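Continuing from the previous page...

OK, I double-checked the sequence for Adenine phosphoribosyltransferase against my notes and this is the correct one:
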Amino acid sequence: MPADDLAALIRTIPDFPKPGIQFRDITTLLLDPAGLARAVEAIIDAVDGPVDLVAGIEARGFLFASPVALALGAGVLLVRKDGKLPGATIAEDYALEYGTDRIAIHADAFAPGARVLLIDDLIATGGTARAAVRLLRKAGAQVTQAAFVIDLPDLGGADALRAEGIHVTSLVAFDGH
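Thanks. Re-ran it with the corrected sequence; updated structure tokens here:
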């Protein structure tokens, strides 16, 4: 299934969550078994070398991390909003348009040197993804790859990750916000 066909499965909702934003909704892609399978296969095909863990960013990243991890023979690592994981965690703050947020992983999630692929449904400004890379690296992971179903290249997130030495794969790109 070509990227144009995947893009056609992604619904655009204008003015959500606020006026001027074109929200790229993957729920319509998730409803299509062939499209979902193709998206997962395309991410798997883009992986370079062995991976120990696939880190999915809350919450839509979890949906893609699990099938990709199974296919790669890797585990799934949950990157969650702070306060959502039981047990000891390590966390990383990052800037939002109006304020800050914090993501966390379990402190004992992996041994130093684990090779981690980062996954989320969409990359826009890259704030959350860059925070996840910092967090994973702080915990001792080797993070050199990230995959996203959607890229909004005008917002620069994928380029910001590339500047940090991350090979970025995205399946479809949409202009604008």
